[in-house]
From TrEMBL:
It comes from Novosphingobium rhizovicinum. The active site is at D7, E67, D139. Its EC number is 3.1.21.10. Mg(2+) 2 binds at E67. CDD domains: RuvC (cd16962). Mg(2+) 1 binds at D7, D139. It catalyses: Endonucleolytic cleavage at a junction such as a reciprocal single-stranded crossover between two homologous DNA duplexes (Holliday junction). It is an enzyme of class 3 (hydrolase). This is Crossover junction endodeoxyribonuclease RuvC. Binds 2 Mg(2+) ion per subunit. It is found in: Cytoplasm. Homodimer which binds Holliday junction (HJ) DNA. The HJ becomes 2-fold symmetrical on binding to RuvC with unstacked arms; it has a different conformation from HJ DNA in complex with RuvA. In the full resolvosome a probable DNA-RuvA(4)-RuvB(12)-RuvC(2) complex forms which resolves the HJ. Its main location: cytoplasm.
């Protein structure tokens, strides 16, 4: 089964796809969707939707998982992030896939063992779990971590 994980962001949304066969995980692909800050919000959301849809159609995952992200320092940034998250949820749901959401702290705990892990610790664990993986960037790494978290959650429910 294939699982796509998404780490939403308006400037950059990370995506990562893993395959789960029994208890074995394999890296399929990862990348980042960047939007042009000079474009309107609507145009940026269209770009995000189009590129995520292309990734989903190219890889045909069975499940989708999106990181829950909360930013409280700047209300405007939080609203834009929420809109990008909405596009992520929509792209997965429109493809007919079940979609799950995971808190950042749960993703970190699932991979590293502590909900307060640093990004470098998460990336180091990704290289252990997915040997030879070449990460497209920090957001792609976070997205792979979300996909792995979902793969582990599926295992605990079956």
């Amino acid at each position: 089964m294939l699982i796509i994980g998404l780490d939403p962001g308006l400037a950059c949304t990370g995506w990562g796809i893993v395959s789960k066969s029994g208890s074995r995980l394999s890296h399929i692909a990862n990348g980042q969707v960047r939007t042009d800050a000079a474009s309107s919000l609507a145009e940026r959301l269209v770009t995000l939707d189009r590129e995520l849809t292309d990734v989903i159609l190219a890889h045909r995952p069975d499940f989708g998982a999106v990181e829950e992200v909360f930013v409280n320092t700047n209300a405007q940034s939080t609203l834009k992030l929420g809109q990008a998250r909405g596009v992520c949820l929509l792209a997965i749901a429109r493809a007919g896939l079940p979609v799950s959401e995971y808190a950042t702290s749960l993703v970190k705990k699932a991979l590293v063992g502590t909900g307060r892990a640093e990004k470098t610790q998460v990336q180091a664990m990704l290289k252990v779990l997915l040997p030879g993986v070449k990460l497209a960037g920090a957001d792609a790494a976070d997205a792979l971590a979300v996909a792995i978290t979902h793969a582990n959650m599926l295992g605990s429910h079956r």
